[in-house]
Amino acid sequence: MNRVPPLRLVPLLALSIWFATVGCQPSTGPNPDALKIGAYSVVREVFHDGLLPAFKAKWKAETGREAVFEEAYNASGAQARQIASGFDADLAVLSHSGDMDLLARAGKVKSDWNAGEHKGILTNSLVVIGHRQGNPKSIHDWSDLARPGLGVLYPDPKTSGGARWNINAIYGAALLDARDKNREAPDLAAVRELLAGVQANVVNMDQSGRQSMANFFERKTGDAVVTYENELLLRAREGDPVPYVVPPSTLLIESPVAVVDDSVAKHGNGELVAAFVAFLYSDEGQAIFADYGFRPVGKDADPASAARPAPARLFTAADLGGWAKLEEELYSTNGLWTAIAADRVRNRGN
């Protein structure tokens, strides 16, 4: 099988990028051994190069049949909107629960998609800060990103699930610190000050996290990039080690998967989809995720992730009130980040 080059080496498009396994031709009708994946861009390598070849071999050994995969990758928010609008993916693999809830509201996935042992979460990671070799700007915590003169990269939260994880991590760390100091009346002005200080240093807001990574590493833009830990470890896996720091207080990235029921019913591939989802959660599947830099779910210890740095405080979206609350507090018309971004635009115009 020809290896698809790493995403950082090919142009990034706003539209979904399609891949077909070598030798597969489009089916003229329902194929019970064909499966369409609609995923966010960050999981491209682990799926295409790791999980799919392993599962195809397993499926062939168990059934004697060839599994055929079609893959579409995009920024998580854009991918969710495409599926909601009719893209007939059988499986949605998205950055965060907010995007999956959009599909639930559109009737594309079950409203209880987050039930079960793992609550619908397929992978874990951390929000971290990548920096230049030698850490010349002495970046160790979120507050360092607000220092005057620093150039920061993270993508646009209007299109990127990764951007929302990044901003939520900064917001959450500041909010929890304020609550520690005064539970009854936390200093929300300090929270806004940190978010505004970091946003003032953001030099470019790309459509996706992958584009931010390309700008930071290929084009040498900025001094720091806020991103998923697994993104940096993927580069190290490809022979390009990237220095990063885990802030003392950071957010656990919990990324979901769900079956798109109407598509599965139309394609008649329920057996294949169920087997593939089970494989993703199996020890073998989760070990492949770990090999590509993710922190596995459902495992107490994993050699690939146990030695990685751990924050003093690791919090979740639930600790901040859940995704619906975060969406309202930060990204709605009157949300905190929305107001900060608007202020920055106005200040630039003055």
What keyword list fits this structure?
single chain; 350 residues; alpha/beta; eleven-stranded mixed sheet; globular; disordered N terminus
Q: Concise description?
A:
The protein has 350 residues and is an alpha/beta fold. The chain has helices at residues 44-63, 76-84, 97-105, 161-181, 188-200, 209-217, 229-237, 261-267, 270-281, 283-291, 303-306, 323-331, 336-349; strands spanning 17-20, 34-40, 68-74, 91-93, 121-131, 152-153, 202-204, 224-228, 244-245, 249-259, 313-315. 41% of the residues lie in helices and 17% in strands.
How do the helices and strands follow one another from N- to C-terminus? EEHEHEHEEHHEHEHEEHHHHEHH
**How many beta strands in the DSSP annotation?**
11
User: What Rg do the Cα atoms give?
Assistant: 20 Å
Average per-residue pLDDT, rounded, comes to 88
> How large is the count of helical segments?
13
Please bin the fraction of helical residues: 40-55%
Query: Hey, roughly how much beta strand do the residues contain?
Result: 15-25%
**Shape label:** globular
| Biggest sheet record | 11 strands, mixed
The low-pLDDT segments are: 1-27
- Find the structural class using helix and strand composition: alpha/beta
